[in-house]
Design brief:
It is a single chain. The protein is an all-alpha fold and 170 residues long. It folds into 2 domains: 2-80, Orthogonal Bundle (Rna Polymerase Sigma Factor, Chain: A), CATH 1.10.1740; 90-169, Arc Repressor Mutant, subunit A, CATH 1.10.10. 76% of the residues lie in helices and 0% in strands. The chain is elongated.
Length: 170
Amino acid sequence: MELVRAERRDEAIALILGEFRRKVFGLAYSFLRNREAAQDVAQDVFIKVWRALPGFDGRASLSTWIYTITRNTSLSALRAQRPQSSLSDPDVMAAVDATDDAPPGDTVVEGALLQRLVDQLPTKQRQVIMLFYMEEQSHEDVAAMLAMPVGTVKTLLHRARARLSAAAVK
């Protein structure tokens, strides 16, 4: 924050980008589940951070402040999205049919099935699973990113794993 006080905001944002780029993208992706949309949100987040840096007062940690901006920007992007596909879409049905015809043990198909199961989880469970397993974040980092206690993250992970296990057995 010394760089901001010294009116070297561009240098400060360069350091922030290096440290938070992957985490911001991961959190945005956990909300949006679309790579391009998450990249757009991440770019918006860093523009907002750059603009707001002079007003950052340090009451919250820098990471918490950035994750809050990311969460709010992601939620705004979600509200602005329109449904992009439906089961009546021929391309979606073709993908489903191809999955049903694949041989057992096909890792691509198993990955697609797992992604479909994860997509069906409640929002908070899905976000925790995505950040913890897919983005390989620690319990503490996930808690900071989602502004919730570490115990809540562990509980959500436990519940999500139980749901995924039960769904996979069906």
